Amino acid sequence: MLNKVLANFYERDLRRLIEEVNLFTNEEDLWRTKGSVKNPAGNLALHIIGGMNYLIGATLAQTGYVRNRDLEFTRKDVERKELVAGLEKLITLIKDTVNALTREQMEAEYPLIFDGMKTSASTTSGASSSSLLIASRPLPKVMTLTPSSAKVSSMTF
């Protein structure tokens, strides 16, 4: 059950990202920055695609994906349709992978040390939860750029 909930959350948020990418009326604006925003929306989409293909695809689904993190931030002028296709493919990968995890896999420690920290149910003082949900430290604030208004807003996950 938790598998389906997680898969649905990922799909919902990635579909929202696809909507945001498609809101850019001028495709070239995907690769521009404004004010204090240092990473264009296109590179952030590439970063999500690369990160999730590595963290879920290569690590959990054993896809063999090899990540090039630097390229996620230096590659430019990728066509919108390629970004959207990458995000759509990611939705399928995540849904298939997360839905196929057994209860034991969901409760097991995540196979990678993330940012120097373990992520598992054991980090929550015995509470039963998924290693895909638990982080052993507070999450940082992130900046988002909305294409329709080009305004920057801050939010905490």
Task: Identify the quaternary structure here.
Answer: single chain
What is the tally of helical segments? 5
SSE arrangement, N to C: HHHHHEE
Strand order of the largest sheet: 1-2
Are there runs of 5+ residues with pLDDT below 50, and where? 122-157
Number of domains: 1
Q: Within the CATH hierarchy, at the fold level, what is the topology?
A: Four Helix Bundle (Hemerythrin (Met), subunit A)
Mean pLDDT: 82
Q: Please give the alpha-carbon distance between the first and last residues.
A: 23 Å
By secondary-structure content and strand pairing, the structural class works out as mainly alpha
What would you say the CATH architecture is? Up-down Bundle
Estimated radius of gyration: 17 Å
Q: How much beta, percentage-wise?
A: 5-15%
What is the number of E strands?
A: 2
CATH class: Mainly Alpha
The amount of helix comes to 40-55%
- Tell me about the largest β-sheet: 2 strands, antiparallel
Rough outline: globular
